[in-house]
TrEMBL record, chains A, B:
It comes from the Eukaryota. GO terms for molecular function: ATP binding; glycine-tRNA ligase activity; transferase activity. One of its GO terms (cellular component) is mitochondrion. This is glycine--tRNA ligase. Homodimer. The keyword ATP-binding applies. Residues 158-521 form the Aminoacyl-transfer RNA synthetases class-II family profile domain. InterPro entries: aa-tRNA-synth_II, aa-tRNA-synth_II/BPL/LPL, Anticodon-bd, Anticodon-bd_dom_sf, Gly-tRNA_synthase/POLG2, GlyRS-like_core, tRNA-synt_gly. It is found in: Cytoplasm. CDD domains: GlyRS-like_core, GlyRS_anticodon. Its main location: cytoplasm. It comes from Pseudovirgaria hyperparasitica.
């Protein structure tokens, strides 16, 4: 997909990827062993960038809202993920070529083939089509673009299918493959129909082989399983949120798109627990209600369209488009976070999940998607998971994953209550007494009402008790009373609902770099990455004017001073020209440069350079450090600094 | 093992563990599902403590020494760990009771049984023995202590075995079991001999089943595999270190001892790459040479003793006890780190590995052990792994995991060189030409010397060439010259050696809490944890004197102010007494408390309380904040603060 950089040039992915690899932002894992698809290592700048994004996330969410951060294990026993539904449902559809053994992910295959056909159609119609770049080193499994014109109606059909490609299940994907004659794109061979492939990595815990487990596919389950402890830690006060930052794993069928679809990835997830009664209000919704989001709603997509509408979140919630305030609050906060770390506002949209995409229990779900050269990519999911997770785990284990709160007004409940004459009951039913008693206790209100009439009319009732006699037990009125009475309830018990903002840090990392990568017109071979100071891997480059030893003490002193202020810095005292040294660090996204020159030795002043404008100011060491600290903490911008410190445009140092 | 708290009281593990669980420092994972042995979750205070320890580690090592931090994947293909030796050797010895199916870790079993017998002997001799605490909830697999006196010589034998229990291989453990008649301690049944159990979790990567992989057992391998890229990133400058912080996994046979032996754990590992020539000097060794360490050397242990010697690291290196400066440098730096985060100096020792314990390639290896109620626990390993890892991976993959450096003085090498007459060579050997040529090129210098004499004497040589004729090929002197010549080498190539300090963060976390846990004589039911301010989960507790609403704005203002200074804080505005609120936070190790009272409303002064002394000072908000920041950053101590701010001993607020 053709996208443009922040300066409006066409984005050159090959250039950016080459920079990423050369400067060791990230690199395929196990490359010297031939690599493993979907696994990447982060080198020093990537590692620092990732840590800074996480740090900002922690500040923006965990600290700002007093969330309870937890760190749960990745190893997860089978039973937990069976209960959560992952063992049965966490799968993609794959289809196999029985001849070659090739395996395809069904939805991706359909998408790719139809896109190739649409492209072929455009070619046939003489329209402009982005040239396909071939990578001769890569074994191509891609669908070929052939110059074949399609019927207008077929074009419309294809476009509609593509707009809702995430909405098909395996059977439907199989139907599309048959209907549109989709084959192995390399050999043209027939494919088997899609079958489910579970995406969890399986292993075995302990020395005996009867304890199967998985690597977690999300950090959420660990948080749900400790809900009752977290609630107690929070002095049983609601609502509250837990949060977790850690790796999760998905055994992708066919990883592609670099960092965007990987098998091991860092997630940051919030589980906000809220009372389902009262419309899931959020106490701070007022603060964000005017935040405007680009929304792509469910209906638009089902109609085969992708038009977004700019909507203040307040309006989206009040109109019912976004299900509730808490969900809306987090959508706005997600956007604020993305903007804070440097994501391009024009490249964010929120896409609502379609019915089939969403888990059956979810009340509503929106993805924050970021525009990249691979198209719109889901980077943050924000789902209302309702009471599903807590309920299933509580049901399975009997654990009290509930909230008990004292009602402000006691609740009066009219209900049929049953009293048994225990003294007579035992001797009458002997060893069956317990079973009969349990069966009576389990009677619903409707049945109790009916039986109270039977009792009045017949002087006895007949109750179903499995395993006792013929399963029907007669109870005479001497043993039992059934009466309508009023019960006053002081305590309310409820299962909280969960709003879950879930961040794929690796995807955000990648999209962010695409958004911030550009080149200067006078040096198009070198990239610049305009990280905001707070997330930049290194904040300051220290450059002595030359390798002259006289500069060294000042460089060291400045390095120590900045380090003490918490500002990461690196020295480049190589013999390359200053311009070249700066350019090398523009590639790493280092926002500031401090030059030590002969003037510095005389009067302890230094030049401070801004990466994006390449403008410089000159000031004392204290002033320079203060300006850097302010810009990193966000209390000043470069524009502010330029206004108050003297511009330096002495010699063009090259 | 009986240990004492920092105030000299007996350490009460049950009390501490109960506190850990109640205040959610950590908790068994999946507890509502019955739990999985060896897996623990960290709750909010534990999560913060862990993050702070990691933060201090990153400052102390990565930032201070400009290490290259990387983040590599946990999923690791089989081939990598086959090459590293883990597939074949990363195992513990387990033995099975064929009747009950019980599985024991052999070394632990021998240890436990002999210890129980020694205890029984002491009882029989009427000596004082620590009472065995029984936990009726736990299924006991422990060896029973029976009142049986042993021969004096047997006692000595047992003690010697226990002192070197880590030094036995499977066969030897089997021998001990037979010799000392060690059975299933619960049933008394016979056990099978020990067999190796590989400790890696296995899984399968991708949709086909032919890509086996493991969860990494250490973070080191990923660092080795990117060595050449890191070297280039470092401008090919040596020495340098990479570092990595992340989870690793060991499928323990029978996890026990809480956080000390778990199946998933956070590691922080450094791989310091150093030129093996020149004695592995370290440029900063001078800075640490006077640091005194408690050393337990190999010979002492093999003699069945555990006596440590206090030795300055400079002396330990110069005497050859510690193999080299770089290893010694890191031992000292490890101790400095441990002290910085609050480990008790009296509870640190460095134990040298015995021969069998150490990998065959290692030059030397020392563990930093911390004393806990479970005994001395390995918390940091520091090994000289020599060139082993880089060599085996380079050999397997052909990747250039080497350093090439220009020699200061070119090196002249006398060697036998071979010239072939290529024009005649081809026609003579035809299709076998390549094979013969390769065989000649592979000849060693010794063989070349011998063959040069043959050539002179016989006018021909005979070379072994597998697969050509009968494997012997005759080459006449017309085709070949062998001469001794001088070659000048300008470039030196070498495989760096690796010094690896490897930190088990979870074990340090646990030992640290044991070292810092104590109780006040006047409130023995409540624990206090004296975390240094820098690692404390929360730095400040904010307490309004009462629930009076007038205090709220000041509390909020102080909270914001501290947060802006990067100081984490929590409010306790419950109706409990101030004393009780402070005591609750002593349990969390919160070092400072700030009280908002009526005086605060009048003049904006606040009391600042120190956790350990419970003393208070009173000052303006700015002064109080400044003191807290200084104490967290370590530029001031409470003693300093008390000297310059007025003591507050107004009403005893209870």
């Amino acid at each position: 997909m053709e996208t443009t950089t922040k300066t409006g040039q066409p984005f050159d992915r090959a250039h950016m990827e080459q920079l990423m690899k050369r400067r060791l932002f990230y690199t395929p894992s196990f490359e010297i062993y031939g690599g493993v698809k979907g696994l990447y290592d982060y080198g020093p700048p990537g590692c620092a960038l990732q840590a800074n994004i996480v740090e900002q996330w922690r500040k923006h969410f965990v600290l700002e809202e007093d969330m309870l951060e937890v760190d749960c294990t990745m190893l997860t026993p089978h039973e937990v993920l069976k209960t959560s539904g992952h063992v049965d449902k966490f799968a993609d559809w794959m289809c196999k070529d029985p001849k070659t053994g090739d395996i395809f992910r069904a939805d991706h295959l359909v998408e790719e083939v139809l896109q190739a056909r649409l492209k072929g159609d455009k070619l046939a119609r003489g329209e402009n089509v982005e040239a396909e770049k071939e990578d001769p080193k890569k074994k191509k499994k891609k669908a070929k673009v052939e110059n074949v014109k399609l019927e207008d109606s077929v074009v419309t059909e294809y476009e509609e299918i593509l707009a809702k490609i995430d909405n098909y299940n395996g059977e439907e994907l199989g139907g599309l493959m048959t209907k549109y004659n989709i084959k192995n794109p390399v050999t043209g061979g027939d494919l088997e129909l899609p079958v489910a492939f579970n995406l969890m990595f399986q292993t075995s815990i302990g020395p005996s082989s009867n304890a199967p487990g998985f690597l977690r596919p999300e950090t959420a389950q660990g948080q749900f399983l400790t809900f009752h402890k977290l609630l107690e830690f929070n002095n049983t006060s609601m609502p509250f949120a837990s949060a977790s930052i850690g790796k999760s794993f998905r055994n992708e069928i066919s990883p592609r798109s670099g960092l965007l679809r990987v098998r091991e990835f860092l997630m940051a997830e919030i589980e906000h627990f809220v009372d389902p009664e009262g419309g899931k209000k959020h106490p701070r919704f007022e603060e964000v209600k005017d935040v405007e989001l680009e929304l792509l709603n469910r209906e638009t997509q089902l109609a085969g369209k992708t038009k977004v509408e700019t909507t203040p979140i307040g309006k989206a919630v009040s109109s019912g488009l976004v299900d509730n305030e808490t969900l809306g609050y987090f959508l706005a906060r997600i956007q604020q976070f993305l903007l804070k770390i440097g994501v391009d506002k024009k490249k964010i949209r929120f896409r609502q999940h379609m019915a089939n995409e969403m888990a059956h229990y979810a009340a509503d779900c929106w993805d924050a998607e970021l525009l990249t050269s691979y198209g719109w990519i889901e980077c943050v999911g924000c789902a209302d998971r309702s009471a599903y997770d807590l309920s299933v785990h509580a049901k399975k284990t009997g654990a009290p994953l509930i909230v008990r709160e004292t009602r402000k007004e006691p609740l009066s409940i009219e209900e049929y209550q049953i009293d048994l004459d225990k003294k007579k009951f035992g001797p009458t039913f002997k060893k069956d007494g317990k079973a009969v008693e349990s069966a009576i206790e389990a009677l619903t209100q409707d049945m109790r009402e009916k039986l109270s009439l039977d009792l009045k009319n017949d002087g006895k009732i007949i109750v179903d008790v499995a395993g006792v006699g013929d399963g029907k037990v007669e109870i005479p009125k001497e043993l039992i009373t059934i009466e309508k009475r009023t019960r006053v309830e002081h305590i309310r018990e409820f299962v909280p609902n969960v709003i879950e903002p879930s961040f794929g840090i690796g995807r955000i990392f990648y999209a962010l770099i695409e958004h911030l990568f550009w080149t200067r017109p006078d040096d198009v071979d070198r990239g610049v990455i305009s990280f905001p100071p707070a997330v930049a891997p290194t904040k300051v480059l220290l450059v002595p004017l030359s390798t002259n030893a006289d500069f060294r003490p000042l460089v060291q002193q400045m390095g120590r001073k900045l380090r003490a202020l918490g500002i990461s810095n690196r020295v480049d005292d190589s013999s390359a020209s200053i311009g070249k040294r700066y350019a090398r660090n523009d590639e790493l996204g280092t926002p500031f440069g401090i030059t030590v020159d002969f003037q510095s030795i005389k009067d302890n002043t230094f030049t401070l350079r801004d990466r994006d404008t390449t403008k410089q100011v000159r000031a004392s060491d204290d002033e320079v450090c203060k300006a850097v600290v302010n810009m990193v903490n966000g209390t000043e911008t470069w524009d502010d600094v330029v206004k108050r410190l003297p511009i330096f445009d002495g010699q063009e140092i090259e």
